[in-house]
Amino acid sequence: MTSVFAWGGPAGGGTIRSRPEDFEVEEILGHEPTGDGEHLWLWVEKRGHNTVDVASSLARAAGVHPRQVSFAGLKDRNAVTRQYYSIHLPGQDDPDWTAWSGSGIRILNAVRSSRKIRRGRLKANRFRLIVRDLAVDHDKLQQRLVSVREHGAPNGFGEQRFGGNNIARARALFAGQLRRKPSRHKRGFYLSASRSLLFNRVLVHRIADGSWNRMIEGDVAQLDGSHSIFVPEPDDPDLSGRCEEMDLHPTGPLAGCGESPVSGEVAVLEREIFSHEADLVRGLEQFGLRHERRALRMAVRDLEWQQPEPDTLRLDFTLGQGSYATSVLRELIEYDIST
């Protein structure tokens, strides 16, 4: 994302992630384990570990192949996060999971279920962020906070999606210039980063022209809180009101094969932006990704804020699946990440 902002720009600056406890994430699956079955669900708190590493540790502890361990979403390493993992243990009694906690990993609860946890199947994430060394115009910060709470924020992909050199490696992958074939896991990061860059380019343009939070000619809408998209009727009298109430959102492209459902000025804009990154577009099509849509706006639910100290800000809020807390934060302050 560039220095284009929906609500007037940052009100000042501060530091995040000074310690893992300053960035907390709690997963909300939206469904509960059934209480019995072949899958052991573990409610896990971790710090200093990424999600995949914890899954590998659980597989070793259970004596199973890593493919038998599932989770819904990836969570940050430099944070305190709580999420469910499921382990497929058909025909086996409950293992002694109480011994599985280790450095930076705590098993908080365990329960059986008849189904596994599936990737991407989560409803939301609840965040608690602490900003330290806060130096802001407090009136402006208050205005930004109210705007974000009442009207949402641009649903951009955060900088962690790009991982420093993921775009450069994606270009090399698409051009056949990588010296070693990347693992499936790494290749997935390169493909995701490419799609994210293209989406963010469209979003920046829509923020700049003021259409990131309203429907324009040729838009495709996404229902809030779901993956359901539809092409609205051009003469729908309720469309503008539903968008203003955040019942639905305009969408941007996740590039890939297949016909894009947008038309009119939206199609012209997206084709123009794609033309400047033709190698990424071709590469995504070459690897068989399908064209999808993502909401340009995210609702920031239950946003609350406190200042326990004059130079400290605490934020609590809930975001839907796939939305980034740092994309909320960039509308409020310029932040440094503590190292």
Summarize the structure.
The chain is built from 8 helices and 16 strands. Strands 1, 2, 3, 4, 5, 6, 7, 14, 15 and 16 form a 10-stranded mixed sheet that branches. Strands 10-9-11-12 form a 4-stranded antiparallel sheet.
Structure notes:
The structure is a single chain. The protein is of the alpha+beta class and 339 residues long. The protein folds into three domains: 12-21 and 126-151 and 301-337; 31-113, TruD, catalytic domain (Pseudouridine synthase, 2-Layer Sandwich); 153-298, Pseudouridine synthase (2-Layer Sandwich), CATH 3.30.2340. It is built from eight helices and 16 strands. It has helices at 51-62, 138-151, 166-174, 184-208, 239-244, 264-275, 278-286, 325-329, and strands spanning 12-16, 23-28, 39-47, 69-71, 80-88, 105-113, 124-136, 153-154, 221-223, 229-230, 248-254, 292-295, 297-298, 301-309, 312-320, 334-337. The strands form three sheets. Strands 1, 2, 3, 4, 5, 6, 7, 14, 15 and 16 form a ten-stranded mixed sheet that branches. Helix 3 (166-174) packs across helix 4, helix 3 crosses helix 7 (278-286) and helix 4 crosses helix 7. The longest helix is centred in the middle third of the chain and has 25 residues, at 184-208. The mean pLDDT is 94.
* Discrete helix count: 8
Note poorly predicted spans. none
Estimate the mean pLDDT confidence: 94
Total beta strands: 16
Percent of residues in beta strands = 25-35%
> How helix-rich are the residues, as a percent range?
25-40%
Structural class: alpha+beta
The profile of the biggest β sheet is: 10 strands, mixed
Fourth CATH level, the homologous superfamily of the largest domain:
TruD, insertion domain
> How far from one another are the termini?
22 Å
CATH top level of the largest domain? Alpha Beta
Large-scale geometry:
globular
Order of helices and strands: EEEHEEEEHEHHEEHEHHEEEEHE
What's the architecture of the largest domain, going by CATH? 2-Layer Sandwich
Indicate how many domains the architecture comprises: 3
The name of the CATH topology of the largest domain is Pseudouridine synthase
What integer value in Å does the Rg equal? 21 Å
